[in-house]
């Protein structure tokens, strides 16, 4: 059986104290799952150093869609690779919503990652209004469409995975239902190919992680709030098998 992926997304949270607490605790166990933590840029090197003797991977939460150059405030894929980062989340709904990232910009970011050999975690998800209007599937298909261009150039399932994160389930305590998750993961796998891992994200906790990861087509979870709590996050990692 393929290993599940558990990826923590700290968002704009954290401190050196939190790194010591969460990373130490999570590293105290070993897991059947592949566990990664995506931390804010300033902490990447600290976490990388702390994880040096562990199997856990360290990731970033975004990347510039441009190569190195005159783009003040941006961080390039090459820089992330250079400091030992292993994976990068792109297209998180908060990036799309607050920073205006388009589906095309997300695909450009993924292209930069692939050029330097970083693994991408591409987030897709519909809003509640889109779901209520019966447009959830169309929204996900639109978000996946630019990825097909990259796949036509030879980018395969070893280079990126998709995280299905319904926007209405993020940080709300209301995870999607088993039926909703199974249907959307099925759609994504039919669109990209069954070899691509599809993770679920949205109010995953230690208490619901096993049930969510048992749904056919769920290859792991992307965890926001609960990844900041060492006990919750290690519980989720254990629940992954
Ligand atoms: C996220 O932001 O990617 C996320 C899934 O958040 P939460 O787990 O807090 O719902």
Q: What descriptive keywords fit this protein?
A:
single chain, 241 residues, alpha/beta, 8-stranded parallel barrel, 10 helices, 15% strand, binds phosphoenolpyruvate
**Which residues form runs of ≥5 with pLDDT under 50?**
none
Nearest-angstrom radius of gyration?
17 Å
Sequence of strands across the biggest β-sheet: 1-2-3-4-5-6-7-8
Report how far the terminal alpha carbons are from each other: 10 Å
Number of strands: 8
Q: What would you call the shape?
A: globular
Question: Pairing-aware structural class of the strands and helices?
Answer: alpha/beta
Which ions and ligands are bound to the chains? phosphoenolpyruvate
Outline the biggest β-sheet. 8 strands, parallel, barrel
- H/E series: EHEHEHEHHEHHEHEHEH
- Mean of pLDDT: 95
Helical coverage, percent range: 40-55%
Individual helix count: 10
Task: Estimate the strand proportion.
Answer: 15-25%
């Amino acid at each position: 059986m393929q290993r599940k992926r558990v990826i923590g997304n700290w968002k704009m949270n954290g401190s050196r104290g939190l790194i010591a607490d969460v990373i130490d605790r999570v590293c105290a166990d070993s897991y059947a799952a592949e566990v990664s933590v995506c931390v804010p840029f300033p902490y990447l090197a600290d976490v990388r150093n702390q994880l040096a003797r562990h199997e856990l991977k360290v990731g970033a939460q975004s990347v510039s869609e441009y190569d190195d150059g005159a783009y003040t405030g941006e961080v390039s894929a090459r820089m992330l690779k250079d400091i030992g980062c292993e994976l990068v989340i792109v297209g998180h709904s908060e990036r799309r919503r607050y920073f205006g990232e388009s589906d095309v910009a997300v695909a450009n970011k993924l292209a930069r990652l692939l050029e330097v050999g970083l693994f991408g975690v591409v987030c897709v998800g519909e809003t509640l209004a889109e779901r209520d209007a019966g447009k959830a599937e169309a929204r996900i298909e639109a978000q996946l469409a630019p990825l097909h261009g990259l796949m036509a150039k030879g980018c395969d399932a070893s280079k990126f995975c998709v995280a299905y994160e319904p926007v209405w389930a993020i940080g709300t305590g209301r995870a999607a239902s088993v039926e909703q998750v199974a249907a959307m993961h099925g759609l994504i796998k039919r669109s990209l190919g069954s070899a691509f891992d599809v993770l679920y994200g949205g109010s995953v906790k230690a208490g619901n992680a096993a049930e969510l990861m048992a749904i056919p087509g769920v290859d792991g979870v992307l965890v926001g709030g609960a990844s900041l709590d060492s006990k919750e996050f290690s519980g989720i990692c254990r629940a992954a098998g």
